[in-house]
Structures are given as C-alpha cells and as structure tokens.
C-alpha cells in the first residue's frame, strides 16, 4: 500500500485525538478552576525519495504527525463572587493542597468549592471528592467552635510546566516541578468566591473548525490513495 495512505490515516487519527482534547475543554467551560489543555504535535520519521542514508538529498517525505503530549494552561480564570462560606479562590499563581483520607496521597487543585464533612473526630474542610484541604502547615482544617482552625494555604512550584493532570481538575507535580512552597507576593486567597475555568470558547471553537477541516482533508487523501492503488492494480491485470 502506498505510504500516502498510511500517512493520511495517521493524520486522521491525530486530528481525532486533537478534537477530543478540544471537546473536553469546551465541556469544562463552566467547571470551577479548570485549566485549558493544549496539544503538542510531533513529526514522525522522514525518509529520502532520492539519495542514500549518507546523502539526505533535496527530496524528502514525511510520514505524518502525532499528538506527543498535552500541556495545561495555568493562566488564571475570572473570579466569581458566590458568598459561600466555604468557597475560596486563588488570585495569582498557586494551588490548594488536598490529601486523601484513605492513603494520604497529595494532589493540587485550583477548584476551591469546599464543604464540611464529618469524620470520627469531628468536621473537616474537604473538596468535592471528600479529600482533606490542608493549611500552611499541611494539616487538615478542622471546624471547631463554630469556625475553621485555619484557612486553605496556597502552594506553588518553581515551574508548573509538565505537571500531570490526574482528572477531576487535579494535578500532581513531577521531578522538574520541584517541591511545593507557600506562595507569596501577588498570590492571595479570596474567600466567598470561585475561579471560573480559563477556557476561551471562541478560540477553542476556531481550533475545532481547523481540526475538522484537517480531518476531512486526511480522509480525502485516504480515498485518493485507495483509488490510485486500485488503478495501479487494474493496470497489472
């Protein structure tokens, strides 16, 4: 089968993956603290149409591209005042640190829609998944005597590039992100507000249109390659 056929199929699969990522962004348009996911593409192997391995030649052909990875855009979203007693938003950089009540694993989120949850020894501030929200000393925040024992702390990293998204609007750091530290400077807590997602609907829809067109071109290329192959096979008979 002609290389163009496989290149076109790979291109169509890549654009389908890209559209899945874009549709996920659009679906989370109203998700508190959601970070837009952007696709990074990688060219696949090139080969020489003429020439040897030592001589690259002037004519080279590629074999398509793939979505190498997705990166989260940590640009802040708009803060919306809710008046909720346990709603928090971060103005600036940083994350809330939350801890699993089961295995004590730590994740980070920008979604500050918290609530109170009863445990064996009292009420604690938790996120939507029931994970414990931590303060500046990385201790759970307890509700005692009609008030909280502290405020949710804001933690940041040297770089947020490459943080892994684990779903449910949560992230875990990698080695390159370094250890978390208490954010300062221009980052501060806003009580009674929530941060909206940073999805730009107009931009995402324009990307969807471009991706759909590329997808249709790839399918047209598949059809044309198949027709050429059929014609060549017919000439051999």
Written account of the structure:
- The chain is α+β, with helices and mostly antiparallel strands and 237 residues long.
- The protein is 25% helix and 30% strand.
- It has helices spanning 3-27, 201-235; strands at residues 37-43, 46-48, 60-62, 65-72, 79-81, 88-91, 96-99, 106-109, 115-119, 122-126, 132-133, 142-144, 147-148, 155-156, 164-167, 170-172, 181-182, 188-191, 193-195.
- The chain has a five-stranded antiparallel sheet with strand order 11-7-8-16-15, with no helix packed on it. It has a four-stranded antiparallel sheet with strand order 9-10-12-13, with no helix packed on it. A two-stranded antiparallel sheet has the order 1-4.
- The model has no long low-confidence stretch (mean pLDDT 88).
Contiguous low-pLDDT stretches (5 residues minimum) are: none
Number of DSSP-assigned strands = 19
Distance between the termini: 17 Å
Order of helices and strands: HEEEEEEEEEEEEEEEEEEEH
User: What's the rounded overall pLDDT mean?
Assistant: 88
Number of helices: 2
Q: From the helix content, strand content and strand pairing, which structural class follows?
A: alpha+beta
Estimate what percentage of residues fall within beta strands: 25-35%
Global shape: elongated
For the largest sheet, list the strands in their spatial order: 11-7-8-16-15
Bin the helical content: 25-40%
How is the main sheet built? 5 strands, antiparallel
Q: For the CA atoms, what is the radius of gyration?
A: 25 Å
């Amino acid at each position: 089968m002609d290389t163009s056929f496989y290149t076109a199929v790979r291109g169509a699969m890549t654009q389908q993956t890209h559209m899945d990522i874009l549709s996920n962004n659009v679906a989370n348009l109203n998700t508190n603290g959601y970070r837009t996911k952007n696709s990074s593409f990688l060219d696949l192997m090139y080969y020489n149409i003429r020439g040897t391995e030592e001589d690259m030649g002037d004519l080279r052909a590629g074999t398509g591209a793939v979505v190498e990875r997705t990166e989260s855009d940590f640009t802040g979203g708009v803060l919306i005042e809710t008046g909720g007693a346990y709603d928090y938003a971060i103005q600036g950089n940083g994350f809330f640190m939350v801890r699993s009540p089961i295995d004590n694993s730590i994740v980070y989120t920008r979604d500050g829609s918290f609530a109170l949850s009863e445990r064996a020894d009292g009420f604690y501030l938790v996120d939507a998944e029931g994970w414990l929200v931590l303060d500046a000393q990385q201790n759970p925040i307890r509700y005692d005597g009609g008030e909280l024992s502290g405020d949710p702390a804001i933690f940041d990293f040297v770089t947020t590039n490459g943080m892994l998204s684990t779903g449910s609007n949560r992230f875990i750091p990698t080695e390159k992100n370094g250890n978390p530290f208490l954010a300062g400077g221009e980052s501060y807590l806003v009580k009674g507000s929530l941060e909206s997602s940073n999805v730009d609907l107009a931009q995402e829809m324009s990307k969807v249109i471009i991706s759909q067109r590329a997808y249709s071109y790839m399918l047209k290329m598949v059809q044309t390659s198949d027709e050429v192959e059929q014609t060549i096979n017919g000439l051999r008979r």
